[in-house]
């Protein structure tokens, strides 16, 4: 019989959302008729907006005609869409030829690991979006899990004590650094000075940064960088994954991109972009043409304004939840609320409590589902993530219920 890829037996994560679902189901079974509200997932909830839907629908209808039908498209994605992404998100920074369209940021993160292969040291923010570490395990870069985590992974704690920006002195030479800002799960958006430190460290140590900008569209503070490429020197040490998922509601439609600067080189001087082109033409066959038509509409003036309204809507949700979490019951218990403002996530510290303990208390008392911070990494222990993706009436109801929550029952 064929042998299983050993890497699968090394995976330790992956239990977080199934465990949440299990506890939610058990609560539902013992409380029939009770409405459970989820503030636990990063999935979008609001309908697609009219101009963007129009772009998708018109293209889909065209596919049913001889004139409008298209099959496989350009390898890197539609030139017109790459030009728009370059102009809207990276003016004067990244050209259309450095942009590769895809079926989403998560999928690109998985494929990017092929560029560096097994054995490459990995450094991640802790807590972190799980695919950075789990993807590294699958490619054989992370090694076996031991008591401190995976052997090949350096975990860089990001907690309230360091304002959620890691101590970079631990970054190994010639490593791959995963960095996400605004961050999932902490909601922290790094400043220009912080990202400059990150870029300077990466260049000094021969590292490559995989910068995840999936939440950049939530940034409202004009002083905060919206892409790593605003930072001098980033083009020599970073590539960026990004997505239409959260701003356009394309979590199900699927459209993202990766920007790989021509100046990004391996140790032997060869360009990373050439290998990325090879990966994308070998194991990927182009982003959906319908999704790309939606992406084109999203980057029209009307589409940009619609995306702004949708992200404003979720940010208002996060403001409503924050107000509840800053109520007297939470204040008395010393609870601190971080994130929001430039991110759809609130990251909430409950002193002297374990994340799962808080999760259970909120579920039992308020019928509200959250995400235990410890599921995103050891430094997430004691925190709980509140997501602002939800219908307004549910958010308002959940906020009302949180007002009655007793932190120390
Ligand atoms: N990156 C981060 C940090 C995320 O939180 C998510 C989704 O929640 C993604 C990437 C996934 O993006 P996509 O839907 O484009 O695959």
Describe the structure.
The chain has 409 residues and is α/β, with parallel strands linked by helices. The protein has two domains: 7-46 and 303-403, Alpha-Beta Complex (Aspartate Aminotransferase, domain 1), CATH 3.90.1150; 50-300, Type I PLP-dependent aspartate aminotransferase-like (Major domain) (Aspartate Aminotransferase, domain 2, 3-Layer(aba) Sandwich). 38% of the residues lie in helices and 14% in strands. It contains 14 helices and 15 strands. A hairpin with a 2-residue loop joins β4 (145-146) and β5 (149-150). It is globular. 46% of the residues are buried. The mean pLDDT is 96. Pyridoxal-5'-phosphate binds at residues 42, 104-107, 129, 180, 184, 212, 214, 243, 245, 251, 256. Pyridoxal-5'-phosphate binds next to α5.
Question: What topology does this entry show?
Answer:
Elements: H1 7-10, H2 16-30, E1 37-38, H3 50-62, H4 79-89, E2 99-102, H5 105-116, E3 122-126, H6 131-139, E4 145-146, E5 149-150, E6 153-157, E7 176-180, H7 192-204, E8 208-212, E9 238-243, H8 245-248, E10 256-259, H9 272-283, H10 289-298, H11 301-325, H12 328-332, E11 336-339, E12 345-349, H13 355-366, E13 368-369, E14 371-372, E15 383-387, H14 392-403
Parallel strand pairs: 1-13, 3-6, 3-7, 7-8, 8-9
Antiparallel strand pairs: 2-10, 4-5, 9-10, 11-12, 12-15, 14-15
The chain binds pyridoxal-5'-phosphate.
